[in-house]
Amino acid sequence: MKYKISGDNLQFVTLEISPGEMAYAEAGAMVYISGNMNMETKLQGGLFKGIKRKLAGESFMVTNFTSAGGPGLASFGGNCPGKIIPIDITGTEFIAQKDAFLCAEESVKWEIAFQKKLGATFFGGEGFILERLSGRGMVFLHACGDIMEIELEQDQTYKVSTAHVVGWEPSVSYDIQAVGGIKTAMFGGEGLFVTTLSGPGRIYIQSMTLPQLAHAIDPFLPHYNSGSSGGGGLEIKF
Q1: What are the helix (H) ranges across 41-174?
Q2: pLDDT tens for residues 23-40?
Q3: Which end of the chain has fewer CB within 10 Å, C or N?
Q4: Which CATH architecture best describes the domain 2-208?
């Protein structure tokens, strides 16, 4: 399946889907489709699979895309400023943060994965549930900010600020580690823990998380102010 990623900080990916092929995507991720494309929203894998998708931060249902009468185009975009990551998982697997999935070929299998270590669960910033992608073909992830791909060598370790890890190959060891002394933890601005990733294997790191983006723009958004008298008004902060 051919694809093209367009844009800079608000990217979308366009798939060329031939008759007999199918792609599926997060509900609501479609940007546009050509006139010969068919789309059908389904509860892929049944009710239990839908519940697992919700637990992983994805939509309850997915939308399938097929073409008729020749190749067709289907384009998909993320829900925030960021980048799209194309990954060929043929012959391997990939572990991603929850809600990173955007779209994939039909032959890609989506499952939830659970943290194996309690420390990573409570302090690593990724939560208890992750996403495991396997099978064969292309899958496309989306994450906030700019993305850096790093190939870790055997025993090479990176320490990453909490929640900035988009995903990693299963050969990479993932854990959390205290950031340092009390002064660094309290006043360094990086929190109490950092994520440690040890090779070999490929990892993806994002420059900004969605909560950071929300926190940055919040002071510039209008806020509704309800007074003690029962009335309310629109308060605009500058």
Answers
A1: 47-55, 118-123
A2: 999 888 999 999 999 999
A3: C
A4: 4-Layer Sandwich (3.60)
